[in-house]
Amino acid sequence: MSRFSLQGSRAFVTGANTGIGQAIAIDMAAQGCHVIAVGRSSMADTLKAITEAGGKADAVQADLGTVAGAVAAFEQAVAEFGPIDTLVNNAGIIRRADSLEFTEADWDAVMDINLKVVFFLSQAFAKARVTAQQGGSVINVASLLSFQGGIRVPSYTASKSALAGLTKTLSNEWSAQGITVNAVAPGYVVSNNTADLRADPERNKAILDRIPLGRWAEPEDIAGAVTFLASPAARYVAGITLPVDGGWLGR
Q1: What CATH code is carried by the domain that includes residue 127?
Q2: For 4, 16, 49, 59, which has the most beta carbons within 10 A of its beta carbon?
Q3: Residue among 227, 189, 192 at smallest CA distance from 41
Q4: Which domain, by its residues, includes 171?
Q5: Residue 70: inside a domain, yes or no?
């Protein structure tokens, strides 16, 4: 079996209904993983794409905006489908406004989903793996703003910067238990979150002018890095945040 194969494993992928999360679910399933697609919205399109390609997937509806909802969904998935080998913390939101005008409600909503829920969902996953005396992998979806400040997205930048640090902390604590913790940091991706940027001619041009590869990423471009980090080929990779940015940070 290829060291890049995920045959026989199960993954819990949050926010898998569209965009990057959907691409991750489809890519992991193509490598033999049984994907549990998780989120508030319907996962029908994701499941259809996976099953039509001969893969295996199921869905769990969940409110990923609360710790209780996220952990309950994880426990439901384990009860219905069996032990989870890989947790992909992909679900996230962004709110845009000048920092002088940013509201507490927008701050809390972003921090809760992008950081707080990620931590406690990861904790629930790690507890289950340690109890079973089995390893596993946690893969967080960070951002270029884990490294940079951005503009008009204070809570998003704060959450993604903290997520890069959290990835290191959890790796330091859990690696000895056989649980690798890593993150990918997508560059500018064609997704719902970037629709406003792509619709602004000046911002769109400024972004493309800085990307050495000369294009926005497609969700599939990010998925391959996640699948690699979940595979046996990455068993000695721990505590990193891997940019997948078309060369943006090297410019």
Answers
A1: 3.40.50.720
A2: 16
A3: 192
A4: 10-189+218-244
A5: yes
